[in-house]
Design brief:
alpha+beta, four-stranded antiparallel sheet, 6 helices, 34% helix, 29% strand
């Protein structure tokens, strides 16, 4: 059995696509996934299943969510080992105060060089990006960007993406152990 983490994009954001996590866990169990657990209400699911390709699991979850809930969402799946590597290669130092926040955007595909250049150009004094494989690390200086608005990485790249805070990424990793 392999441990996977699925990051669902587009559920429980404001009033849209409301989904209780117990319903999501039940859905995952109905797909044959084992040891299913979720973390907070934003669609972070840890589960085990026989070795399968991550893109097949992504498609399976997308189809199941649409069939069960009617939501057209994206899903990004990583193995526990991949998530461990993602955490280990973070290019930004951990912030020592509340003026800086770290994020990871999970992508379904690797962006090409032109997409990466476009994203880098979208950065500013408050926000910077580093792209590695199918992840984009973001460092946001909250003291300079108090509005809470930041670049939608997926929109800039033209690739489905979902963003998680560094705290969520590390907590989900702990849950996956």
């Amino acid at each position: 059995m392999t441990t996977y983490i699925a990051f669902l994009r587009g559920i429980n954001v404001g009033a849209h696509n409301r989904m209780k996590m117990d319903a999501l866990r039940d859905l995952c169990r109905s797909l044959g996934f084992e040891h299913v657990r979720t973390y907070i209400q934003s669609g972070n699911v840890v589960f085990e299943t026989d070795d399968s390709a991550a893109n097949e699991l992504e498609d399976e979850l997308v189809d199941a969510v649409e069939a069960s809930f009617g939501y057209d969402i994206s899903v990004m799946v990583r193995t526990r080992d991949e998530l461990h590597e993602i955490i280990g290669r973070c290019p930004f130092a951990q912030p020592e105060d509340e003026t800086t926040k770290l994020y990871v955007s999970f992508l379904n595909d690797c962006p090409d060089d032109e997409q990466i250049r476009t994203l880098s150009a979208a950065g500013n004094d408050a926000e910077e990006f580093e792209t590695m494989n199918r992840e984009v690390y973001s460092r946001i200086r909250t003291d300079e960007r108090k509005s809470g608005q930041f670049t939608d990485v997926g929109d800039v790249l033209g690739i489905p993406a979902t963003r998680r805070t560094w705290n969520v990424v590390t907590r989900v990793h702990e849950l996956a152990r």
